[in-house]
């Protein structure tokens, strides 16, 4: 299985979700919840993030974060692994705490702040844990409802500044509370249900920007998100094209587009390209050179 697509750039905005392995609990009591939130605060300060909202549930967590520097991966690795090590020692258990890689969905700009944050803040209500989001202590919403409960490291003002006045009046905080309360009577669907590929919330221009930032690279198998950006469906198109920058880690199966194209596009050459992609670096380079020589000789 390929790793999830990761695109990082200055000022990028993400909705991030991390789930427990096999949907197991990531927190067991309030001490765990406090430690997880303290870890998030430490990450925000250390990596210069702007956290706009968060919620800690029993077996997963959500947050919306803006990264002034392209460091989501580094921050999430520090945040999740630090908590997992602490929890493993406290619980005296071995094995993975979190399920695979966290999910990071892209958000174009602040015009989506209210919609996404409302969905995040209503998680405890949807789960039947509380009747109103303000009753759930383990989220950023109490600080939006009551400024006295705001955490200094949560970017409340940035989210409230995105208010468009749709709720009337001049009080952005009150307008946001009314906006969230409307979701109690008419629960909203996830805003990413209508997003490009289910993970890019923004305009066609934003999708095009992500595509240009990613650039071409080859991996076998390709990440689903990369296939979407590249405009490939599941049965047609080049079998290896995925997006760049963005696949965290270094795959042995990555080779350059121009090298694959030099091998040709018929079935026999495609199979050779696949086997070539799986080879270690020096053997792969030798195979590519050999294939190019055969192609030029013919």
Question: What's the arrangement of secondary structure elements?
Answer:
Elements: E1 12-19, H1 30-47, E2 50-56, E3 60-67, H2 72-91, E4 103-107, H3 113-121, H4 123-126, H5 141-145, H6 156-161, H7 172-185, E5 200-201, H8 204-214, E6 216-218, H9 224-230, E7 241-243, H10 257-262, H11 267-277, H12 281-297
Parallel strand pairs: 4-5
Antiparallel strand pairs: 1-3, 1-4, 2-3, 6-7
Helix pairs in contact: 1-2, 3-7
Keywords, please?
single chain, 298 residues, alpha+beta, Alpha-Beta Plaits, 2 domains, five-stranded mixed β-sheet, two-stranded antiparallel ribbon, 12 helices, 7 strands, 12% strand, globular
Structure description:
With 298 residues, the protein is an alpha+beta fold. It folds into two domains: 12-194, Transposase IS200-like (Alpha-Beta Plaits); 214-297, no CATH class. Helix content is 43%, strand content 12%. It contains twelve helices and seven strands. It has a five-stranded mixed β-sheet, with helices on both faces. A two-stranded antiparallel sheet has the order 6-7. A hairpin with a 3-residue loop joins strand 2 (50-56) and strand 3. Helix 3 (113-121) crosses helix 7 (172-185). The longest helix is centred in the N-terminal third of the chain and has 20 residues, at 72-91. The protein is globular. The protein starts with 11 loop residues before the first strand and ends with a helix. The model is unreliable at 232-282 (pLDDT under 50).
């Amino acid at each position: 299985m390929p790793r999830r697509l990761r695109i990082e750039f200055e000022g990028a905005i993400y909705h991030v979700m991390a789930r427990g392995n096999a949907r197991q609990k990531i927190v067991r009591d309030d001490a765990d919840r406090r430690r997880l939130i303290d870890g998030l605060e430490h990450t925000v300060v250390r990596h210069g993030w702007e956290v706009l909202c968060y919620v800690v549930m029993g077996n997963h967590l959500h947050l919306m974060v803006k990264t002034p520097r392209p460091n989501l991966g580094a921050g999430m690795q520090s945040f999740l692994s630090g908590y997992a090590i602490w929890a493993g020692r406290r619980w005296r258990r071995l094995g993975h705490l979190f399920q695979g890689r966290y999910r990071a969905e892209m958000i174009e700009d602040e015009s989506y702040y209210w919609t996404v944050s409302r969905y995040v803040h209503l998680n405890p209500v949807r789960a039947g844990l509380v009747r109103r989001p303000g009753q759930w202590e383990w989220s950023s919403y109490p600080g939006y409802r009551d400024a006295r409960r705001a955490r200094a490291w949560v970017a409340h003002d940035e989210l409230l500044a995105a208010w468009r006045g749709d709720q009337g009046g001049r009080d952005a905080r009150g307008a946001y509370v009314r906006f969230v309360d409307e979701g109690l009577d008419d629960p909203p669907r996830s805003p990413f249900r209508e997003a490009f590929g289910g993970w890019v919330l923004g305009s066609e221009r934003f999708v095009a920007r992500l595509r240009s930032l990613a650039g071409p690279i080859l991996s076998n198998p390709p990440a689903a998100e990369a296939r979407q950006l590249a405009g490939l469906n599941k049965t047609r198109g080049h079998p290896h094209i995925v997006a760049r920058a963005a696949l965290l880690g270094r795959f042995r199966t990555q080779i350059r587009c121009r090298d694959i194209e030099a091998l040709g596009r018929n079935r026999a050459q495609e199979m050779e390209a696949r086997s070539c992609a799986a080879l270690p670096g020096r053997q792969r380079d030798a195979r590519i050179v050999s294939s190019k020589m055969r192609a030029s000789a013919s």
